[in-house]
Hints:
Layout: H1 9-14, H2 16-27, E1 37-45, E2 50-58, E3 71-75, H3 89-98, E4 103-107, H4 128-143, E5 153-158, H5 160-171, E6 178-182, H6 202-208, H7 214-223, E7 227-233, H8 240-253, E8 258-262, H9 268-284, H10 295-298, E9 303-307, E10 313-317, E11 331-335, E12 347-351, H11 359-364, H12 367-376, E13 384-387, H13 405-421, E14 431-436, H14 438-449, E15 456-460, H15 477-481, H16 485-491, H17 493-499, E16 502-507, H18 516-528, E17 532-537, H19 546-559
Parallel strand pairs: 3-4, 3-5, 5-6, 6-7, 7-8, 12-13, 12-14, 14-15, 15-16, 16-17
Antiparallel strand pairs: 1-2, 2-4, 9-10, 10-11, 11-13
Helix pairs in contact: 2-9, 3-9, 7-8, 12-19
Amino acid sequence: MRRLPTPLIALAVCGVVIALAAVAGAALTKAPSNAPSEQADAFYSAAVRGTVHLTILLPAGYRAGSRRYPVVYFLHGLPASSQTYRNVGFLRDALAGVRRPAILVAPQGARDTDTDPEYLDWGPGRNWETAVAQELPAYIDAHYRTIANRRGRALVGLSAGGYGAVSLAIHHLESFSVIESWSGYFHPTDPSGTSSLDLGSASRNQRADIHSYVGLLRQEFLDRPTFFGFYVGSNDTRFRQENLLLHQELVAAGVPHVFKLYPGAHEERVWRDHARLWLGLALANLVPATAPATANVLLPGFIQIASGTAGGSIWKGRIPDHAAPWDRRRSAVYLPPLFDPSQRYPLAVLLHGFPGSPSGFYDSLQLADVADQLILTGKIAPFIAVMPVAGRVSGPRSDEEWAGPWETYVIGDVLPWAAAHLPLERKQSERMIGGVSSGGYGAVDIALRHPGRFGIVESWAGYFHPFRDGPFTTATQAQLDDHDPSLLVRREAAALRQQQVRFFLSTGFAHGGILRSWTFAFQQELRSLGLRTRVWASSKPDAGAYLRRQLPDALEFAFGA
């Protein structure tokens, strides 16, 4: 917290929030029934080489329920003592009045021997940015029922904490979607709040200056939708002018934001009187508290077998096959973080290779972790993936194909089942089919043989002419031609262009008789027909590791936000 008018100088030494807590406590006679409960916590931070203490406000009913909650990370002012983070009385009262349940986390932001670190990284043992922006959310998500992605996190701060909140959030937009500064400023200053700090180099000074990022924020906020609000007292003689300047810069750059002047100076009355409003704005721009996913209701007989890093989930169960009702093997479904059955989602149908199973997607390629992180950072829209199991139960599976009975299974059983059990978007442009190796061939073949079903077609290390195996072992040339993507794409080119179907192709090096050059040749065929296509190619042989490396690009191509 920057220095205050003379009557409050003594309080400022320990942090102005102490004054806020005292005022709020004096006015409170009895905590409302819906008031959050308060508890202490702490974690070891490698960034500051010591314990970071926390005050946690948990919403009423937290301990008895199973809901997940958005989190407001609240940064106190500086200079401060090692105890300033504990003074959250006015925030507890404000949260009780907001009526949008949330967790509030107030971290320690200073030490008695290091009272003004400005929430910056200074070097080993003093890296406060890393501690607050990275280590803290990881700890909270692991120990509390949070909505563990950027849409469920706000970073808010008071005075120097306002500077910290804006600086940290702008440098970590993958983690926070709401930013608020209460009477803050936008470049690092000394304890008096009147002189800029020199961080030792031009590059470090520029990185710490929020004004230098204004020109980038319009696109950043488009890529990752963000609420940015900052508020200051009309008589705040130190920071009002800089707040007005930033507001003017943002308006000129076309950056969406909320700015307002409030009566008062740099004083506790301003923050106490408006904390409820400002927290309400922050929470209104976060996703609300949510109950656990109801996939067990939507997917009868399915069980959850894995979770992604941000709350996505993998469910395993049987998708009935009317041609083989005796087949009890289990397919898989991926549901995104914050899955809400009242919303509609794009669909990915993912076909495994032969021999293989859906586990190749969720175990080997770590689909849930990769998709969760892309959704968390706003790079892709949440989507649902259905991974059907196929191939003969007995005998060799290495010569199977997604044709014959398995093509019929995808079109006649899997797609109707998904439409009946899952909340899916209905547009062709919101449906993707993709696969690995023989699954890549199957995805292209099925999409081309059933035009109008899929808007995105992806082949990961696939091929584009049928092999004489599985259902093609005794096929005639006419039957082979009818399953040859290189021929089919010419036949369907006009319809594909009209439907704006897109193709993503990836390749490593030769495997199982499948040549890298086939992918580039098919790409040229697609381009010659005026079809949108993209190729991802590994630069060197890597024993199949490229399949995991190409997955983020494949998902961004399909569902890029």
